[in-house]
Amino acid sequence: MEPPPPPPHHCTTTTTAQLTATSLPTPQCFKCGAPTNLPSPPPPPDSSSPPAYIPIRLPAVNLPPNTAAKTQQSIVLTPVPQPHPVPPLSPPFHFTTPIKRITSPSDASHFIDSFSGKSFLSFVAFLSHSIRGHKISDPCPVSDTLFKIISVFDALSFWVDEIPPALQSARYGNPAFRVWHQRMTENSQKFMLDILQQSDQPEIRDSVIELVPYWLDSFGNASRIDYGTGHETNFAAWLFCLARLGLIHEEDYQAVVSRVFVKYLDLMRKLQLVYCLEPAGSHGVWGLDDYHFLPFVFGSAQLIDHKYMKPKSIHNDDILENFSKEYLYLSCIAFIKKVKKGPFAEHSPMLDDISGVPNWNKVNSGMLKMYRAEVLEKVPIVQHFLFGSIIPWYDHLSFLP
């Protein structure tokens, strides 16, 4: 049996003289390298400045090599954020409606190097430190303030059951989310006042004018019907405001993560699944996760010094099934595997790479550094961050106000 004939070439018999007569590069046959009459393929897009937002509806793309190297280098050079006590807000109070201030990369750098930025990042690091080595179900003190917050999340979750998704053919953006969001907005001031009643300072209750905007921006955007790490960061900022106001104390931090943040995460996943929220600013395949970041920070802290589970354990489905309810990191991996199809290394290559890190301490340090570099220093995310009297904006770089 004779072998099949070779595939046709597209080369021509162009002479060397003809090649040198033109200054334009001549297309070459992909089989033999000879000149061809077929036009050259269009040049690739400029990869030096990848778009800040790639819609999830488009095919996922890999981060260009030069940009990936710069990103990795910036994370490596970033110092590991350290936990420090939250500076309390002292009277006299001058509460005001918070506004946006960040419009450029220099503004983002200004914020992260300022007193407000350093204090907020230290608060996140302190929350991470407080949950280190603890399971979600581990006993911990839960204050009256945290009980109030948990009851609010129970109400918000119940409303999702009361407001079913509308029938539609679109993959993302169920308009019923706007009904839920409107109900949440209408009740937000009442929620804040119920929480603020736990304070022994009556004047603290006037802070509702600042707390409500952070709260409203913690659950996604009702117009775009999307949700992302910027909204998650606003929820962390809301918790930071409560800490500055003295409603949350350091002894509450473990419960803030294992009770309050877990409730928040459960609610957001429910909203994402029921109302098909579109990922806001998703980086597709070269992002950590389409919606969240902080569960990976807190979850990696939980697993530090664990006797049996290592970063590579995320590939063990039995471990995910048995322990995802106790560890946030495993919960995130299990959720991703539930909603995404295909090999894990293809749809989540960054998490797959992180699974090769030798221990959870390095994973946690890297997550904290990445949170600073890839969330708090990225304009598309922090341009929505709000500043008022509780989280002030400083016109000059300084650690002290």
Describe this structure in words.
PPIases accelerate the folding of proteins. It catalyzes the cis-trans isomerization of proline imidic peptide bonds in oligopeptides. One of its GO terms (biological process) is mitotic spindle organization. This is Serine/threonine-protein phosphatase 2A activator. Belongs to the PTPA-type PPIase family. It is found in: Cytoplasm. This protein is mostly helical and 401 residues long. The chain has a domain of 280 residues: Phosphotyrosyl phosphate activator, C-terminal lid domain (Four Helix Bundle (Hemerythrin (Met), subunit A)), CATH 1.20.120.1150. It contains 16 helices and 4 strands. It has a two-stranded antiparallel sheet with strand order 1-4. Strands 2-3 form a two-stranded parallel sheet. The radius of gyration is 25 Å and the shape is globular. The C terminus is likely disordered.
